[in-house]
Amino acid sequence: QGKFTLLRDTRTDGSFLVHHFLSFYLRAGCKVCFVALLQSFSHYNIVAQKLGVSLSAAKERGQLVFLEGLKSCLDLLFGEEEEQSGQPSPLQFISESDSNLKALFDFVRTSLTPTGSDSWKGLVLLVDDLSVLLSLGATPVAVLDFVHYCRVVVCSQLKGNVVVLVHSNVDSEDEENELVVNSLCHHSDLILWVEGLATGFCKDVHGQMKIIRRVSLELAAEQDHVQIYQYKIQDKNVTFFARGLSAAVL
């Protein structure tokens, strides 16, 4: 509890980690606020059903608060967004000259602030994917401020967890995105860095994951713990193995 986990992908798609954490926390009885900016609700629901979780049922019982970013963006751009209970849209910054993300933060805080009848085993904020906010016009400072305030409220005050996915590419010319990624790396308790194979495509090895436990955040003199595994994504799970020890090699 109280941890910030960064999911980072380079030259590959790390969304399988988002699906894992979403189904994992729902099965564990946690309340999840899911800011989904990359895919529709039906997409996440179909994948979750393969993993044995119903997002529709979780929404009905109040365990899952789902922000469908694609739909909200279209509604805002075409003027069809209706203010609910007098509150502005969480993505209101798209239609305003000021790109602060206060409305999005207020949505997260309201969604996860416990009421008297709540009996959830934990609180979780899940964001997929933070890089989209930059594409929608938010500044790097606004995005980093949003993450900072979410960490303060969710991790420190509510003793919950924050899991965020960002795309990164060291060779790209997107300096704003790399600034956000590098800043988040310095503040994360755990980094799961998924990378495509440098040698290209392989049907038996889909990529490698670097697991970085940030021990140096708590103990200044300690080195971070780094483990590297390769993986293969299957229909309903992911197989991990040491580098060079895939079934195809052995």
Q: Tell how many strands the DSSP assignment holds.
A: 9
The proportion of residues in beta strands is 15-25%
Label the overall shape: globular
Percent range of helical residues: 25-40%
Which CATH architecture of the domain at 3-75 and 88-185? Answer: 3-Layer(aba) Sandwich
CATH fold descriptor of the domain at 3-75 and 88-185 = Rossmann fold
Q: Going across the biggest sheet, name each strand in turn.
A: 3-2-4-5-1-6-7-8-9
Main pleated sheet: 9 strands, mixed
The CATH superfamily of the domain at 3-75 and 88-185 turns out to be P-loop containing nucleotide triphosphate hydrolases
Low-confidence stretches: none
Mean of pLDDT: 89
Give me the strand/helix succession: EHEHHEHHEHHEHEEEE
Radius of gyration over alpha carbons? Answer: 19 Å
State the name of the first-level CATH class of the domain at 3-75 and 88-185. Answer: Alpha Beta
